[in-house]
Amino acid sequence: MADSSAHSSTPADLPGRDAAEEPALLPPELRAWMGLLAAAGAIEQQLRSRVKETLGVSHDEFLVLCLLADGPADGLRMTQIAERLGRPKTRLTYQVACLQHAGLITRNTACGDRRGIQVALTDKARRLLREASCSLAEAVSRAIEGLEGQHDCTVMRALLPGAANTEESLSPRPGTGRKRAAP
Questions:
Q1: Which uninterrupted H or E stretch holds 158?
Q2: Which of 39, 46, 87, 160 has the greatest number of beta carbons closer than 10 A?
Q3: What's the rounded mean pLDDT across residues 84-107?
Q4: Domain-located, residue 77
Q5: CA 171, CA 181: separation in Å to the nearest integer?
Q6: How far, in Å, CA of 58 to CA of 111, rounded?
Q7: Which CATH number goes with the domain that contains 95?
Q8: Is 135 left (phi over 0), alpha (psi -120 to 50) or beta?
């Protein structure tokens, strides 16, 4: 049987470990990636039900709407959407069909390429997004502010509009010893 006193009960890659202990198992880049994933997961959890309530679409369909809302006025090609979302084209085809059926997007043949499909927002989608944007932005802010411990993501908080990046606007976060932008 191995001597348990030789090994710490706290893995080296968890927050709160003593600096004198062995170095973290994960390099900073992977730890940052894990923090980003945690932040994205927290945001998605906050948004999932709110998006369904306010817009009547799934979270994945909402992502398509957001890409189109933030893209060129004439829309995006299906291949561009699939690439940006990292989704298979077949899954995207279903989502786009649902959005088109709901009257939120139009699908047309891409100019100069009869095989390409151009997708654009309808006026109805633009109106719904404008009406829901404050509520959805609040859900994003709440999710980011709620990150704690290992999944604390100061960088994500700093990305929030209105977050000042000055030393005076940073205050210690209770229980973590880290700093965060004041809400």
A1: helix 154-159
A2: 39
A3: 93
A4: yes
A5: 7
A6: 29
A7: 1.10.10.10
A8: alpha
